[in-house]
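User: structure tokens for Pvc16 N-terminal domain-containing protein, please.
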Amino acid sequence: MADTRAIMAVGEALSTLLRTAYQPADFAADLEFRTITPRETTAGQIAAGVSFLLYRIVPNGAHRTPAGRFDAQGRRRQSQLPLDLHFLMTVWGQEATLQNAVAGWALRMIEDSPLLSSGLLNAAAPGAFRPEEVVEIGLAELSNEDLLRIWESMGANAAYQLSVPYVARVVRIESLLPEPGTGGVPVQERAPDFGLLTPETALGE
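Assistant: Done. Predicted tokens:
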């Protein structure tokens, strides 16, 4: 269960994963790894490297809505919000050979690390995820038509670059609010025992 910084943390974790594994000598080039917005997809923003664009957020439908955890006062919090985050990994390079080499390397690196650990997730947002949490990252399906439509929506100056869709699941954002009806004042003392009401006692016998 993560806090509201979870979405930001997942994007940064993907960039950090590749940045940590990157060896400049392998490509004879300086590569850049970062999360971008649609406005940053204009050609020339990144000379060479890999970017991650978050283009879609949907509720995760494979799991039942998980219940919230208990807070320090013993009250259960409202249900968690389970989400799947859809990213577009774009590979940048001035030459086709460099771009294709980086693409193959990045695909392999992510495939070798399909689970983003809490340590990696918390690097950009300390404490956002609990120690036992992980987020699964894997290739997603996206038709050529949808892929090109995403690029077209970024503006006339966004020249298409080699892109691969990924999905990060499941990101569970927890609530800080208690469930309705659980915020009452704790019982301070036991009420008097007036005994069991029977027909005889009710009639005064």
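User: Anything notable?

Assistant: The first helix runs from residue 6 to 21.
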